[in-house]
Specification:
alpha/beta; Rossmann fold; nine-stranded mixed β-sheet; five-stranded parallel β-sheet; 16 strands; binds flavin-adenine dinucleotide
Length: 315
């Protein structure tokens, strides 16, 4: 079993998701298999000690910044170079761009949103989320194949004493005609909070009303020892920063306690938090879908609830 893993880099370092994929690939390949890491445009040093046998590096100034056309052509070149049985990409902007395109170009089967992968001889059985996580699908496909894997499926790869062989591969042709020009990168603040690491989250949705409501929720979160997070409308309104957004286009979280205040429970939000340990929902509408997922709920006005909660916690 030969596995090629696409490495997504942020400020020169592999993202947590890439490290998770490396661990997953090592497990799937087993002792007799091999894992190659695809590093495009950047220095391969940051992933050479994570247990993979080889790092395949394509370095070209035109690939320094993520450009879908250039990275797709590069992964295609690496597939040509290594003939992998399995290509693994993470559920991130690059993975969602590259996976389907490479699968189509190479005429390979593709499963996106994978939550579990099993190799069975010349086939792979992949469990994946469909309809925004409302349903689970099990697909059996023949190898070679392309899989796009959700975050949190594997634990991050440990640092290893063995150093991978670094192989330089020529850049693909056509990089002068990519059709997309890089203008600037807006990188997330690396010192920003990682809400996936928190045990308790207090989430505010549009029902929180305004910034005063958010401040009241922040106070209650502090007393509760919880991080304050939000649904997408709250982040879009600028009431909370993007790194605190939960859901499909935010972070996927699994805290022991998730308190959802004024959140309706749209599929895109549920996708990010439905597997939390204990879910408490507060919503004035008893028919809000969040109550289908909540372990405890209250149909009250969120400001009344916050007042009572803050008072109780203050005692
Ligand atoms: C591609 C895509 C990606 C998306 N990604 C995300 C994502 O990452 N995260 C995300 O959250 N959404 C995401 N969305 C948006 C998602 O579809 C919903 O629009 C969003 O989750 C709704 O947020 P909400 O529950 O805060 O707001 P609403 O759906 O407007 O719900 C507000 C809730 O508050 C209740 N309420 C109102 N006033 C009060 C009150 N005074 N007291 C108590 N309850 C009250 C209402 O009954 C209602 O249930 C995405 C959508 C798309 C298409």
């Amino acid at each position: 079993m030969r596995i090629l893993v696409y490495i997504d880099l942020l400020a020169g370092s592999a993202t947590s998701l890439s490290k998770e994929l490396i661990a997953g690939a090592l497990k799937l390949a087993g002792p007799s298999g091999s894992v190659d890491l695809a590093v495009i445009g950047n220095d391969a040093g940051s992933v050479s000690n994570l247990g993979a046998g080889r790092v395949l590096q394509i370095q070209d100034p035109r690939l320094m910044h993520y450009n879908p056309a250039g990275h797709i052509a590069s992964i295609d070149a690496l597939i040509e170079h290594t003939s992998p049985d399995l290509v693994l990409l993470g559920y991130c902007t690059a993975g969602l761009d590259i996976g389907p395109y490479v699968a189509m170009k190479r005429n390979l089967p593709l499963v996106s949103y994978c939550t579990d992968i099993r190799i069975e001889g010349a086939e792979v059985e992949a469990e994946s989320q469909i309809y925004g996580g409302k349903m689970k699908a099990t697909s059996k496909i023949s190898l070679p194949a392309v899989l796009v894997v959700n975050p949190g499926v594997y634990r991050e790869a440990d640092v290893s004493t063995a150093i991978a062989e670094i192989i330089h591969v020529d850049a693909p042709s056509g990089l002068d005609r990519m059709g997309i020009d890089f203008i600037r990168a807006t990188e997330p603040d690396l010192n920003a909070i990682d809400i996936t690491k928190s045990d308790r989250l207090l989430c505010v949705g549009r029902g929180i009303g305004d910034t005063d409501g958010v401040e009241n929720a922040r106070q209650a979160a502090g007393l509760l020892g919880a991080e304050l997070v939000g649904s997408r409308p709250v982040v879009d309104a600028g009431w909370l920063p993007k790194e605190r957004q939960v859901g499909k286009s935010g972070r996927k979280v699994k805290p022991r306690l998730y308190m959802a205040l004024g959140v309706s429970g749209a599929p895109e939000h549920l996708e990010g938090m439905a597997s939390s340990g204990t879910i408490v929902a507060v919503n004035s509408d008893a028919r809000a879908p969040i109550f289908d997922y909540a372990h405890f709920g209250a149909t009250v006005d969120v400001s009344d609830f916050l007042e009572a909660l803050t008072e109780a916690l203050g005692k």
